[in-house]
Amino acid sequence: MSASAATLTTRPAWQALAAHHEAIRDVHLRELFAADPERGTRMTASGASLFLDYSKHRATPETIALLVALARECGLVERRMAMFSGEKINITEHRAVLHTALRAPREATITVDGVNVVPLVHEVLDRMRAFATAVRGGAWKGFTGSRIRNIVNIGIGGSDLGPAMAYRALAHFAQRDLTVRFVSNVDATDFAEATRDLDPAQTLFIVSSKTFTTIETMTNAAVARDWIIGALGDPRAVARHFVAVSTNEHAVREFGIDPANMFGFWDWVGGRYSMDSAIGLSTMIAIGPDSFGEMLGGMRTMDGHFRDAPLEQNLPVLHALLGIWYTDFFGTQSAAVLPYDQYLARLPAYLQQLIMESNGKSVTLSGARVRYATSPVIWGEPGTNGQHSFHQLLHQGTPLVPVDFIGFMHSLNPMGAQHDLLMANLLAQAAALAFGKTAAEVRAEGTPEALVPHRVFEGNRPSSVILAGLLTPATLGALIALYEHSVFTQGVIWDIDSFDQWGVELGKTLATRIAADLAPSADTAPAHDSSTNALISRYRAARG
Ligand code: F6P
Question: Taking each helix axis from N to C terminus, what angle separates 289-308 and 76-84, rounded to the nearest 10 degrees?
């Protein structure tokens, strides 16, 4: 059974939620906390070493029960089983969705088209392990015999954001005599700045592209090939300085990379769900195969929690349902992710693709226009930096923005009282958002009357607090899998295909056409709309 798009808003559970929303939308979190002294400990859940406090949400146990009922009515349990068992739930591309198979234990069996994919996954993992060990230990040499000191991942979107995020997140565990960089943008500045201080003889490029046709990646890869050949003076250098991660062996061979130096994955791994596939090769080289295995273990544990925990205590399900509650009933249009950990600086960018490319859709599985809001805009920055920037809007702005605070009990870099101060700020922000400061409290501080409205914090601004012990590879894996499954859960309820991305295609096609118009050899009048034509003419004139 799947959710029927046309009927989502007429489902009994949806209707019940709409009525419930009418009843509680103006209730303040101050009242909810006053009414239930246990609320702060009751509205919590844990799994896969993560703890979720969702008590500071504008929700009651009844809200959660109604949301869970909606999830059941929409067929979450059945669709979850369909995903885990390899059914082709990406219907517009007729593909299975099996990022969970990437972290399945060696002895598991998961079949796609009659083939058990788990041995394939482990065969690639074993090859990655051998290669990463050779690079880390210096056994893999560059063309001139130099040891590899620099790894440059060339990729974009899911072939960049996951590895770039994970490298930063797990820098503490990285082999520090290796430099790992990421080139994604077709803007030549990206390549130029990433390589300007690198010795080509010591540099290994990982060309990461599921399709091996993405224009940005192939352009940068060609530039990198020229850079290596130019510096080392021999095309044979490519074999020692390039490896590929792709599903497209033919294109890898065409580029000049020996398929023996290619690490494969499969069409049932979506780009934005691929950081634990061979796309994670740079991560594995940086942190080592054992730590990479621990990251997979954390993901696997969260997969098990998502699959087996009751929906009412299921972290990804709760996370997803609360998101639906705000997006579809409170009408919120964005959500912030605020990790109180500098290592997680790229997590919001990673989640932007994971969430918005997955659920930024407006037609249902059957192609009908949705009659409800889907993915919010995702944004964020590490705390405490954001506090001195956009938190003003979170506290006193007109939009309601639900927040995910992410924090850790222990620091990987303990220094004096800094970690206590960091966590005090996280807890303070969540409390300030929830409870605010009333006019009476502001007046009681002796505030001049004219300033009172400016200094009032209305509160009632919701947040989740996600806590873990320490930012380890396993914790990161669990956190990523939590978000992956939250995205899936929301997609099931919205009845959309969370695993295609047709919305990125039009711009690519147009860019190819416009690039021809911008080329120095272009001599015909551009034939686009009047705005684009005028802009092209202006660009041509400026370029002479
Ligand atoms: O343009 C969007 C997209 O297709 C993403 O979904 C994907 O992660 C990215 O491009 C990169 O694709 P590829 O790995 O095939 O180069």
Answer: 150
